[in-house]
Amino acid sequence: MKNTIKEGQIYYSEEISILLYTNSNKEKCLKSSFVEGKSSFNLLFMLSPNINLEAQDCGTQFSFKENQYILHYSSQESKAKLWTENQELLKYLQIQITYQYIFNLFNPQKSKESSDVLEQMTKNNFIFLHKQTPPLMTVEMHIILKEIIEYSKKGMIQKLFIEAKIIKLLILIFEQFTEKDDTENSSKLHIRIKKYIDENYHKSLKINKLSQELGINENKIRKEFKEHYHSTIIDYVCELRMLKAKKLIIDKNIMIKEIAIDCGYDYVQNFSRAFKKKFGISPEKLRNG
């Protein structure tokens, strides 16, 4: 990591750099720029309102409100410009962390969960937690930043203090991300369930298998589906299978046994019983007219 910015720098090591930028000069447009080091993670906390950011690596301009933040991974060294207009205060805190430090911290080779989180970080899945709206800092995040800015001790104690606070910030970010992700997943849970059933109804579909695939409790799956589609999963699966069977039964080139298997039945007898219950006539009689 290159120590390229001295003004406002409140901490620097080979792995971590922290910069507090404040500019309240009475200029029409207040500007600043910072460098994202090669293979580095950058936490950027907006401490004043109406900040514009132009990122060199993606050629996109963003607008931030006060107390919003982003976590961004940069694979190559790049520059970003920040500015405000109408003589507004420009204040932000940048924490830059090397990829190797995060890699050693997570130790992704030891855990799939750690590996998955690191992958999400490098793919920048934590930039916008609320679709196109950057997330807001929590009260705890504000407290941690204040502690980092005001900490006065130096040397090894400062290093340990800073690293502990950064770990806590990352935990809060992941918790915020997970909470949002869980909320979105919960609101769309019935859609995920139905999609899975629509794609797999012709197989030997069991609720416990569905539960494992989606990572959701069996009772919750049943409740969500019934609440949104006013049908049990069993009845819905049977309906899909019978609709498919009725289409196939008119093709006399396909054996009834083949239709039964194709519709998810291991035994012809079970298929014939379900078919007759649904249509009031056996598949053989319907085929033969």
From TrEMBL:
InterPro entries: Homeodomain-like_sf, HTH_AraC, HTH_AraC-typ_CS, PchR_regulatory_protein, Tscrpt_reg_AraC-type_HTH. Pfam families: HTH_18. Residues 191-289 form the HTH araC/xylS-type domain. Keywords: DNA-binding, Transcription, Transcription regulation. It comes from the Bacteria. GO terms for molecular function: DNA-binding transcription factor activity; sequence-specific DNA binding. SMART domains: HTH_ARAC. This is AraC-like DNA-binding protein.
